Amino acid sequence: MGKFRLSSFFHSTSSSPSADAEAKKQNRQSFSALSASFRHKDAETNGAAAQASKTETSPQQSTSRMVALARSITAETEKLEAYMKANNLPMPGFDVDAPADFPHLPEDVQRSRQEIIYATKELGRLAHGPRESVRWGVWEFLDVLALTAVNHYGLAKLVPVDSTITLVELQTKTTLDPINLARLLRMAMCNGIFREPSPGVIAHTAASRVLAEDDDMKAWVGFNGEDIFRASGHVLQALQAYPEATSLTRAGFQFAFDTVDKEPMFATFGKDPERARRMGRAMASLTGGEGYEPSYFVDVEKGGYDFSDLDAAGGTFVDIGGSHGFMCVDLANRYKNMKFVVQDLQKTIDSAPKPISPDPQVAERITLLAHDFFTEQVTKDADVYFFRWIIHNYSTPYAIRILKNLIPALKPGARIIINDHCLREPGQENPWDERVMRRMDVVMLALLNAQERTEAEFRELFAAADERFVFKGVRRPKGCRMSIVEAVWQPEEVGKADEGTSAPTVAKARTPAAAAGPEATEVKPTMETPATENGAAAAASGEPKADEAK
Ligand SMILES: C[S@@+](CC[C@H](N)C(=O)[O-])C[C@H]1O[C@@H](n2cnc3c(N)ncnc32)[C@H](O)[C@@H]1O
């Protein structure tokens, strides 16, 4: 996909006043044109969507943009509905017995669905107008508050699924007083959560029913509404106090929960099993969902990583922070000769299922090993060192430390594979995925002072850890939000240009220390990153007690 050049979009080369005025007009078009730029690329087979995106969008013609969007919405909705009818599928709805999920849709129908979602959003913004969009956009936290309260008080389980309950009766089952119960419920109803078929009578919708029946979703709402929401509310305070935003003990989370300079989030959760469990379930709900399935890495047919060469050679794959080893089990089911080591903190290793697989041929090739990735790597001479959902949990100084800890174990040619989000330039992602990934990036800031990374930032990360890591690039299986980032340990290659690229790209340095190079990014045992018993700068890891954190 070609790079979108912001500079040509936003900067005028003319100095004449009329040209400047024209340039300003052009700049005002940028946002709709940005989203259109995605649709041009990815919606080529999507006739109506492409039609909408081709529509000229000068401010004077905003009516035609609105109409184009409306037409696109109609056309894509008709496509979606035709598919549902042709396959005897129930129509989408929020009635209590409507299905909570869409079935797996073919690619073109799924694209229609996405187009409806972001075209309706854009049309809504146009209809609100800029000022009112800003005014009411900032009130969206109140939607989160209402949903969080509904979830916290377990209201969904108190309302019968197949009948109704009066507010008066519902109130007797909660500690909320009548006024607060009614106002929070009615706020949630504005978003399709519960309904009030007649005054004072409450009934489920399909959305509130999800909260009654899906405990992982309950955990997702709880973790987001009670941990991330609170942490986010303190991000500005954290940034004002510590603008470099790299420490695990100085994020919004610590300001929210009064643990600044005391402990990382993982340690806080480690002391509170209920909260840790909630986070674990919330993450299971997210990462088991659409676009995150492990099969995107394992199945070569879906664009996953092909380990046939390693399998033929009986190579070794180390999953660092591999939790209970589910990735290794899936890989071992596919590759019958490779060996696997799952490394995690002691507590996680102890709680892994035993045997790890019912198939002895699989189980005997997987070793579970307690290892803290903030200490020197103990599994020497493996072929692959794999990090999934690990590096994005850490700001650059810590991530560099994790990579450096591999070095004593590495043989020439060893591959380091990171499986994380990889951010693209703004406007290159479909708007749905862009929103999810940008939000995740900010969640990482709020909880851990960590970040999602761009390709250039991954490249810089490896370069800062050691110049003998040769960056191989980033690949993303179609339909998956996670990318496969790879570097190879090539001590003999020092001084040569890295493979597949003309010159190292200079990334926007989010951390001055990272840009300054490995020495500057050394994690020293300090109050922020206290030393552990064995002398490693390991407490930066989020502490061994944090092992359930995802
Ligand atoms: C976000 S989860 C990722 C788990 C798994 N890789 C996956 O893809 O779902 C982070 C994992 O890192 C582990 N972890 C946290 N700190 C660690 C450390 N210092 N050393 C080793 N593992 C650690 C946690 O126990 C957890 O299993």
From TrEMBL:
Keywords: Methyltransferase, S-adenosyl-L-methionine, Transferase
Compositional bias ranges of the Low complexity kind: 7-18, 503-520, 528-543
Region (Disordered): 1-65, 496-550
Domain O-methyltransferase C-terminal: 316-465
Source organism superkingdom: Eukaryota
Xref: Gene3D superfamilies: Vaccinia Virus protein VP39 (3.40.50.150), Winged helix-like DNA-binding domain superfamily/Winged helix DNA-binding domain (1.10.10.10)
Protein known as: O-methyltransferase C-terminal domain-containing protein
Species this protein is from: Achaetomium macrosporum
